[in-house]
Amino acid sequence: MRKVSIGIVLTAALLVGCFCGILLFFFGYAGPVMDAAGRYASRAVAETGAVNLVSAIYLNYRLFDTLFEILVFSVAVLGVRFYLVGRGKEEAVERIPESQVVRTSADLLFPLILLLGAYLAVFGHLSPGGGFSGGVVAGSGLLLCAVALGAQAIARRFHEAAFERLEWVILLAILLLAVFPIVFGRLPLSDLLPRGRMGSMMSGGSILIYNLLIGFKVFIGTWVIIYYFLRHRGEI
Amino acid sequence: MTCINGVTIAIVLFGIGLLGLIIRRDLVIKLLALGLLNGSTILCLVSLNSLPGGVPPIIRGPSAVLYVDPLPQALVLAAIVINFAILALALVFVMLLVERYHTTDTQRLEHEAEREETS
Fold this sequence. Notes:
The structure holds two protein chains of two kinds.
Chain A: H1 6-27, H2 36-48, H3 53-61, H4 63-84, H5 100-122, H6 131-149, H7 151-157, H8 160-179, H9 207-233
Helix pairs in contact in A: 2-3, 3-4, 4-8, 4-9, 5-6, 5-9, 6-7, 6-9, 8-9
Chain B: H1 6-23, H2 27-48, H3 70-101, H4 106-118
């Protein structure tokens, strides 16, 4: 049934071989020089106030990158909504009710998963985590609830139209927060808030605010994507 | 074994992903292969800057510990998020194609599209 021509296989093998050869040539003999770590470790805490250096980089030094990352995510959510909004529901799948065990455990676990997501977002500048991972954790908790209770039951509780508007308000808030320092005569994307005591909750300048906003935005975006995929099918 | 580390595993995974992307005809499997490519790139970037005895880049105190470079990890975060976005959008496009042509096979998709053009 499936026939793959020899030419394609040879071309693929040649491509893979070239890639491996290039990689081995570059990295097989001498490792790349990595000396930025020491500089970040010695200066980042004093400059940004965040103990977690990864957060310090992607929400302070390289905030410009992160802004466009958020925009890419927003455009993806917008695309999913745009292409799926008028479709589906013609042959809706009948929902098979889950067992009592699944429903009870989802009820028990959902607040804990939300709490874990919020913790990851709030403590993103002190420990591993951050807005993106916290938002995705909370969103997958919502997916667990949708599996157990049915997507329509969840959709009734979380009003999608209000969520949509809130998502764009949060995106606007992030962009405004980034250009707000212009008002005080500073460069855009610079940090106005005090650095705080190292390792305390209120340290890291505006990294905490960014983490919270991004976490909420990713949570809403994940739910919107899940909701439209489920609605296209009818029911989970 | 020093020759089996993150970078070599990433190279092998990249090869598998590239082969799947070129050879397989199913669009969903092509998307899975694309995800494998992305995962192997992330693995390569993260394991390149791992140090023997290095600790995660979270400053605990003024003591002199060897921290790994935080920069690749911060860049990898963007790769993960954008891969998620690409996967969601591409799945939507596959769904639209399936709705119209009732297949995920690329060659049959081409045939169907050509037949639609000529008729």
